[in-house]
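Exercise 7. Predict the joint structure of the components listed below.
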Amino acid sequence: MIIRLSLIGQGTRSEPFTIDLPTYSGVITNETTGRAFVTVPDVDVPADVAAFVTANPVVDLTSPLPNAFPASLARSWQDHLARRYDLGTAKWKPVVA
Amino acid sequence: MRVSSYAVARPAYGDRNSSSTTNSYLATVGPHGFTVRWTQTIAAGKKCLVETGQSRIRRTSAATVLGDVVTEMIVNSGSTQIYVLNGFLYNLAVGAMDRVYLSTVFTLFAGEQFTATTVDLSTGGVNEIILSSKGTNYDA
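Solution:
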């Protein structure tokens, strides 16, 4: 599904703009607002996060999110990714923005 | 009486819970810093055979000040990186194009990341950029 997420990084070779997710594609960015539209595999998005994204639609990279992304859902997503990839200390902390 | 062995050949990779995986980026973009356009991470217990990939850069409007336009596909394996594809365009002419294909098939192992990055160091102007790959994920 397509989700608007926080962009991290500095835009340099050593710290490129990127998304804190293990797998994604089709990144369209706005460096000024620090947001990006990203295509994320459905299996990487837990049902509660998917429901939040569906309930809070956005059409551009500038307007604010209708409701703040709850910390509980952020933790839910982190745990989901950690279980699914099972790569030891590798952790991801994506934020719907 | 029929006699058979317990030793059974392991199924081919394509028969081990396999599925296609595609990574794609297609956009018309102006100057920008280094930006990761897609990333694929291989989960524990899996491998991925990357079978094809391409980069295409085509200038669609001239820059005011010309700079390098670069695409890269990189495999990150632990602390090391290997560049498996580089696209490069340094041309003001509208319609100028660079097209590069992955030159070989390779396997990604658990924990490795396959990443595609773009950068346009020009001032002004726009390029259409395509970065895509296709592979097969399967049980290691």
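Discussion. The two ends of chain A are 15 Å apart (CA to CA).
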